[in-house]
Fold this sequence. Notes:
This protein has 665 residues and is of the alpha/beta class. The protein is built from 21 helices and 30 strands. It is globular, with a radius of gyration of 24 Å. The model is unreliable at 1-11 (pLDDT under 50). The chain binds adenosine-5'-monophosphate-propyl ester. Adenosine-5'-monophosphate-propyl ester is lined by residues 277, 323-324, 399-402, 424-429, 450, 512-514, 526, 529, 535, 540.
Amino acid sequence: MTTPRGQPRPGTDNLLESLLKENRKFPPPADFKAKAIVKDRSLYDEAERDYQAFWAKQAEQNLHWFKKWDKVLDWQPPFAKWFVGGKTNVSYNCIDRHLASWRRTKAAIVWEGEPGDSVTLTYQDLAREVQKFANVLKSLGVKKGDRVTMYMGMVPELAISMLACARIGAIHSIVFGGFSADSVRDRVNDAQAKLVITQDGAWRRGNVVPLKVAVDDAVKDNKYVDKVVVLRRVGDKTPVKMQEGRDLWWHDLMAKASPVCPAEQMDAEDPLFILYTSGTTGKPKGILHTTGGYLLGVTMSTKWVFDIKDDDYYWCTADIGWVTGHSYIVYGPLSNGATSVMYEGGPDWPDRDRFWAIVEKYRINILYTSPTAIRTMMKWGTEFPARRDLSSLRLLGTVGEPINPEAWMWYHENIGKGRCPIVDTWWQTETGSILISPLPGVTATKPGTGTTGLPGIAAKIVDEKGKEVPPNTGGYLVLTRPWPSMLRTIWGDQQRYVDTYWNRFGKDIYVTGDGARRDEDGYFWITGRVDDVVKVSGHRLSNIEIESALVSHPSVAEAAAVGRSDAVKGEAVAVFVVLKQGQKATPELKQTLRQWVGEKIGSIARPDDVFFTADLPKTRSAKIMRRLLRDLAEGRVLGDTTTLTDPGIVENIKQQYIAEGKEEA
Length: 665
Ligand code: PRX
């Protein structure tokens, strides 16, 4: 099987082989179905009859509006406005509306700290903390429409900050705590943030990762940032220098803040947040989500896909620095009045059973994690989950990358004990909420597929020309109808929004960037990205961003980065580097370059393989032939090299590759 470009997609060949053989089917267990929120296909049918009326009904029944909208959808492809004229507030929906019922005293966020400390915030507690922090924001001059950047670890104050921004109409932009100071700088500058919220340091596997120092570096010469709010999390473990007039302690500000701050009445189309994600150029894209449509998307998908009920303990293991955490730790669960568990640390600290210890401790009912986490656990062995009582689990989910059927089966057998449905959820930062997924009480699942679009979602697979392909043929995954939680634009770059997503097959066809096929049941099987984006442990990275980081090193003349398959991480990064004249290709330099990329972007981008080469294979039009490099990095027999300027280059790289101990397949 090939991708639409006609080339084998690296990183997915083994996956594809196992996917093509996969025919096991798991209908929803009868006892699950009997109690499920969605039991039949009527929502799908209703949505197909009139998708706008369908979404309007969901918005009316499931969200609080200060004022109802005048128009459900204004669709001027590729620009959508949902619930035009409607007034609502995300923080009000996630907090205030639950205070009028018994849920006031229900646990909203149950937080487990890495060293073992824990905090439970009821909806009442959350209301108080969020209002206090909203008043802090106001006192620091943050107004509706201003941008606030958060660079934090997984602490409850991150969720409080998000909800406080939403409450007053400030736009948050969260930068994953594993990103470098340079990455923070780029994102703070692009958003022109007025305020940055950070913490002294974050716990990571018993060590402290300093965060405030990175912010100091990132905002050094910044014209827009007035203030930096610093949360004390690790105390004496890491020194923090507070800059007079700019830096303020969270606890000092909160001590004086009033707990009353009514939610601002926001327009449905007012921006809620920007979240930067990697695209196919060196510059990350600031994906913009707005208020009403986003909230509806996350509220409904949480309810339908996770079947979330009032007595559930629900745990999504993602980091809030990624979209999964935004939508399925904070906004989706809280809008539903659910209990959302949040964990600060890593899966192997203090031991490899930490996830299962948390499941046991809180009697988690619904667990949402990534294929990489599952494959890592698989590698560690069944003794770790076997140590703990997992009998509370009733539903399992995965997200972020394709799951290979072996990992799916391992999850099903060793974690779900054959009893829990698995929802393999496909979506993107851009889609805001889950779009393709089974409904656990309705859909028969198959290991390795997210099955079909949720009610109201229209997806198909097309060829190079945009024509729908027959079943079991590879092609591009596209979305053919607007959906409420879709991105509205790329912050500050409308043209890039149009060009990236809507220019290829027509301005009303959204191009996901994923390759996929559809089987005879109409199920979607995602085979991976078809653009220059790599997914390392489910984290989205741009090849070109990595290349730019490399060429900014004084020893490097040219570089090419590619993704190659990795049994645990899905994909790993391999780079091919041409050194400047006079530079020596040494093992130490390899290490230095790996570290350099880690410092420039973040440790998740650190290349696994570094190869030095005298030249890079290029086409006659001077384009780097990444396909050939991917073949090399995968140890595959090389494809067609006839368009190369100098086929000898490839032979040289290959020889070096083999000399360095990589066997050819
Ligand atoms: O390639 C798809 C993959 O992750 C990409 C989106 O990445 P990001 O914006 O970081 O969001 C990740 C969390 C939603 C997609 O284009 N992807 C996501 N979920 C799946 C997936 N690939 C296969 N199966 C999934 N369930």
